[in-house]
Amino acid sequence: MDFNFTDEQQMLRDSVEKFVREHYDASKASERRKLSRKAPGYNKEYWQTFADLGWLGVPFPEEYGGIGGTLMDSMVVMEELGKGLVQEPYFPTVILFGNCLLIAGSETQKQTLIPRIVAGEILGTLAYAEEQARGNMADVATTANKQDGGWVLNGVKSLVMNADSADYFVVSARTSGKRNDSRGVTLFLVNAKAAGVTRVDYPTVDCLRASEVNFENVKVAAGDVLGEVDGGHVLLDQIVDRAVLALSAEALGMMENLYKDTASYTSQRVQFGHALSQFQTVKHRIVEMFVESELVRSLLYRATMEAQGEHADAKRDMHALKFKVGKAGRFVGQSAVQLHGGMGQTEELRIGHYFIRLAAIDAHFGDKDYHLARYTDMMTIPTGEADANMMPF
Amino acid sequence: MEIELTKEDLAFQKEVREFLLQHAPKNSNELWSKRDSWFKALKEKGWDCTKWPVEFGGSGWKPVQYFIWEKETADYSLPPEMPFGKVMLAPILMRYGNKDQIDRFLPDIRNNKTNWCQGYSEPGAGSDLAALKTRAELSADGTTYTVNGTKIWTTMAHMAQWMFCLTRTANLEKRQDGITFLLINMKTPGITVKPIHTLGGSHHVNQVFFDNVQVPANNRIGEEGKGWTYAKGLLQHERSGLAGITRTLVTLDKLKKNATTVKDGDRTLIDDRTYKTKMAEAEIELRSLEFAELRSLAEAQQTGEPGTASSILKLKGTEMQQRIQELTIEAAGVFGISQGSKVAGPKFAQMGMMMYLNGRAATVYGGCSEVQKDVIAKRVLGLVD
């Protein structure tokens, strides 16, 4: 076992941390809402900087122009980007779209598209959410029917992150079976400008951009299927695991700053002749915020290392992590808002933005209840005779 | 970062498993019948006081090896040893005791021949330990201390031959000064041990009274008035051992197994979704704590100081012990209330209830949770008092 970050990981962290410090310091938080009101909702120069610094290539092998990073490397980047509340579409493009290609793509698809992601030339996103499905990735009502050697897509996808900037969508659609069957879901690579694709774009509450995307008789070539026809659910499942790790790392970065900001604010604000942090009820709540954040850190490291090593517990601990992030994120975010009093209600301070983003992260890819239920399904139950001696000590 | 055990670690794990299979008591009956041969085997293997410094017979294990040992022995449901001698006093003795004291006390601690108890808390000095008042006055010739006062919540004082004790030898402006660390023979005239019965009627703790108890001055550890400094280091040893995370995970596994035998109409309790979900939530918390402990061990090995993750182990570890105990009495249902010998219901029910009742102490002893939070606020978060 080894719990050290490598020198390269430390350098990567320093580089993202420095960018965030210079371009996304705490005082910038109040400008986020305005930026998100119209497309593209992020800074294109910054995106180019991300490309120049090599961050867009972190998860990809060197043969596709990436730096051949591990899941730990992506975790490091996401944790620091989370602290900065960055609005650039790193998550939809690099984590979601990138991993779709990496996990499901053919050699040709990878060769063609990944180097262009790394260079900052194209953006992509994953269109999966449907009104009826909640966290269930197998619940797909969007259809794809065979026609003239290709496919025709029909359906509506919700909350497609940064769809208004994307060049490509990966779309999950039903090619066989009933609505809830895991078999029969297929992933398609769809050009954002294809005929029949229409969007309604909007800002999200966490100051990002998303769209409702309507696919009406959209023609997709046979060569633009990602992975096996009907076998998309298994792939989506792996893609979602990567998404969960990345969002959890982002959440951890925010939780760390939430307890630190709260400790600092309550140490400066004086009421009744004392700093607020001197009141034990305040002090202990900050300690609890710290404790929850450290527990998330432990589970994140555990789940990431297990996923990287294809460990037997990896999937179960992924559910554990998303549950814990949801639950702890609520507590840490709400506590920060509460302990900042009136200021906590405003969007002047970054803690309010962290609070909102944590609520959004819980909602993405199955919330805490969804993942607790999955964990419960997978929990191992030892068999054998009952043990009357319950004494551990 | 790398989660897998190395080849070397796996070989060690195998060695531990084989050793346990050959020598360890296999059930609660064997705990007593095999006690001596088990201690002998541990000693011959050099695994009887693994955490001591190597020069005193410690094993010099890496943190991951301690973790493997803890996990494997927990799987065997071996009760941990009484911590007072080996875990709590020995490190102080080795660091601050003189050669004569080390020779006199350490071998019997190592060989499990003396039971020690800890004389710290007093009726007026609990969380605020520095408020202690038990007086020790040195005779004019400097040979003997006369001790007067009382200690309370003294675990196993009724079974102990010796007590390590904090006494007040001077009233100075700073209360932490003027405290002296004495080793007191429990057979000394003037000592009275009065049992205190705790929730559920158990007798583990006592109040100890000192009435002109004569203690030889050569039973003083280190210098007069410096006892607080010595004890503070010891408290850290105490706290780090109290989280019991690995053991609580093993207890949860037993509870799951037991839940498959608890009748619930036509099914068993394990099929109750609400109950199962509560177990799942507890397990998730424990799995994150287990990893926090590993991180803390690794940091301790590199820096010599347990890291920030360690500060939460006692606090959350004891909460989780209590959570599993609570789930146990919920599984026991009405049968947990009974104290009869031929009662229907799950076999773990009565013991589970006793564990639940005795278990409330875990968030109180060794620095209560509220004090732990004060400590984290000050030392880790840098918040001022």
Which features would summarize this protein structure in a list?
heterodimer; A: about 400 residues; alpha+beta; Butyryl-Coa Dehydrogenase, subunit A, domain 1; Butyryl-CoA Dehydrogenase, subunit A, domain 2; Butyryl-CoA Dehydrogenase, subunit A, domain 3; 3 domains; four-stranded mixed β-sheet; four-stranded antiparallel β-sheet; 12 helices; 10 strands; B: about 375 residues; three-stranded mixed β-sheet; 9 strands; about 45% helix; globular
Architecture overview:
The complex is a heterodimer of chains A (about 400) and B (about 375). Chain A is α+β, with helices and mostly antiparallel strands and about 400 residues long. Chain A folds into three domains: about 120 residues, Acyl-CoA dehydrogenase/oxidase, N-terminal domain (Butyryl-Coa Dehydrogenase, subunit A, domain 1); about 100 residues, Butyryl-CoA Dehydrogenase, subunit A, domain 2, CATH 2.40.110.10; about 140 residues, Butyryl-CoA Dehydrogenase, subunit A, domain 3. Helices cover about 50% and strands about 15% of the residues of chain A. In chain A, strand 2 and strand 3 form a beta hairpin. In chain A, helix 5 packs antiparallel against helix 6 and helix 8 packs antiparallel against helix 9. In chain A, about 50% of the residues are buried. Chain B folds into three domains: about 70 residues, no CATH class; about 110 residues, Butyryl-CoA Dehydrogenase, subunit A, domain 2 (Beta Barrel), CATH 2.40.110; about 140 residues, Butyryl-CoA Dehydrogenase, subunit A, domain 3. A four-stranded antiparallel β-sheet of chain B has the order 2-3-7-6, with no helix packed on it. Chain B has a three-stranded mixed β-sheet with strand order 1-4-5. In chain B, helix 5 runs antiparallel to helix 6. The two termini of chain B are about 35 Å apart. Chains A and B meet through helix 7, helix 8, helix 9 and helix 12 of A and helix 8, helix 9, helix 10, helix 11 and helix 12 of B.
